[in-house]
UniProtKB/TrEMBL annotation:
<comment type="similarity">
    <text>Belongs to the ABC transporter superfamily.</text>
</comment>
<feature type="region of interest" description="Disordered">
    <location>
        <begin position="310"/>
        <end position="333"/>
    </location>
</feature>
<dbReference type="Pfam" id="PF00005">
    <property type="entry name" value="ABC_tran"/>
</dbReference>
<keyword id="KW-0046">Antibiotic resistance</keyword>
<protein>
    <submittedName>
        <fullName>ABC transporter ATP-binding protein</fullName>
    </submittedName>
</protein>
<dbReference type="InterPro" id="IPR027417">
    <property type="entry name" value="P-loop_NTPase"/>
</dbReference>
<keyword id="KW-0813">Transport</keyword>
<dbReference type="InterPro" id="IPR003439">
    <property type="entry name" value="ABC_transporter-like_ATP-bd"/>
</dbReference>
<keyword id="KW-0067">ATP-binding</keyword>
<dbReference type="InterPro" id="IPR017871">
    <property type="entry name" value="ABC_transporter-like_CS"/>
</dbReference>
<feature type="domain" description="ABC transporter">
    <location>
        <begin position="15"/>
        <end position="241"/>
    </location>
</feature>
<keyword id="KW-0547">Nucleotide-binding</keyword>
<dbReference type="InterPro" id="IPR003593">
    <property type="entry name" value="AAA+_ATPase"/>
</dbReference>
<dbReference type="InterPro" id="IPR050763">
    <property type="entry name" value="ABC_transporter_ATP-binding"/>
</dbReference>
<dbReference type="GO" id="GO:0005524">
    <property type="term" value="F:ATP binding"/>
</dbReference>
Amino acid sequence: MTTDRTPPPDAPVAVAVREVRKRYGDRQAVDGLSLDVRRGEFFGLLGPNGAGKTTFIEIVEGLRQADSGTVEVLGHSPWPRNTALLPRIGVQTQASAFFVRQTAREHLVTVAGLYRKDAAAADRSLALVALTEQRDVLVENLSGGQRQRLAIASALVHDPELIFLDEPTAALDPQARRDLWQVLRALKGEGRTIVYTTHHLDEAEALCDRVAILVGGRIAALDSPHRLITSAGARTRLLVPEGRIGLDEAAALDGVDRVGEQGGSLVLETSVPGKVLQALDALTGLDGVITRTATLEDVYLELTGHAAAGGPSPAGGGSPAEGTPAHTLESRA
Ligand SMILES: Nc1ncnc2c1ncn2[C@@H]1O[C@H](COP(=O)(O)OP(=O)(O)O)[C@@H](O)[C@H]1O
Ligand SMILES: [Mg+2]
C-alpha cells in the first residue's frame, strides 16, 4: 500500500532544524533541538504537556522566532515570515482562530480566498474532513470535534505539500479520530509531508514513520516507533490468571524481571517472553495466559514518567518509572 511507504533515509529533507532554542522568561521551552524531517514523511512530536512541542512546531511554521539556531523549511528560512513558503505549507495551530459568524463553508471559502483558491477548493476540503453535511452551520454552533476538523480543513484548503498539525485529534471522539487517520494517511499517500503532535501513542504508532519524544525541550528519543519499541528493551507482559502460580514462584522464574497483580491476573514482565512462556507451560499450562507485547506507550512512559494525557488512562494512575512496583503499571486493551 503506497500510503504506508516510509521515505528512505536519503530522501530529500523537508524540514531541517539545528540547535533551536527558545526561552520564555526563566523557562527554557526549547533547549537545543535538532532534527530532519524527510519529504513524504509522517513525523510525530510526542511529549508531556509543557515539553515544548507547540513552541517548537510554531518556530518551524514561522509563527514564532527562535532565540537561536537555524530552521529550513522546504529550503527556506520560515522567519522572518516568508511569503514564498506560505502557499506550500498548511498550518493547524493548537488554538485555531475562526470567523465564527460565518458558516463552515463560508469560513473555508474565506480561507481559500486568502490563498487565491476558489470555492471548489473549500468544498473539497470540507468533504475531506467529512464536514459537508455541516457546511451551512455557523462556526460558533459546531461541536468541538467539528471545529477541530474545520481547523484541519483550513490547513488543507490550498493543497499544501507540507502540513503541520498541533494535536489535531485531541478533541475528537474515537470514531472521528479513526476517520481523521484515514484522511492523514491519504494525504501521506499523495506524497505530502506531515509533522504533527499528539498525546495518543497508539495513534502515533499507527501513523508515524518516525517520532521524536520531547522532554523538557529536548529530544529524549527519535526513531521509528518500531525501532524505539524493539531497542528500548521495553518488556513484554504476561498475564497469568490468578491462582495458577504464587507471586514468589513467578518472581523466581528465570527471565522474569518484575511481578505484579492487576485485575485478577499476575503480571509477569520479561524481556525473554519465549523462555518464560515455556516455563509457565511446564508449570501450569498456557490456558488463559495473555501476552502483551511492548508498545510505544511503554517506551514513552519509561522516557517521560508521564501518562499521555489523551491516551488510554493508566489503571493504577502511577507513573511507572524504573523501580515502581509492577502493579502500578497500566493495562492496555
Ligand atoms: N507564550 C508563552 N509565554 C510564556 N511561557 C510559555 C509560552 N508558551 C509556552 N510557554 C511555556 O513553555 C513551555 C513549553 O510549552 P509548549 O510549547 O506549549 O509545550 P507543549 O506544546 O509540549 O505542551 C511550558 O512550560 C509553557 O508553560
Ligand atoms: Mg502544545
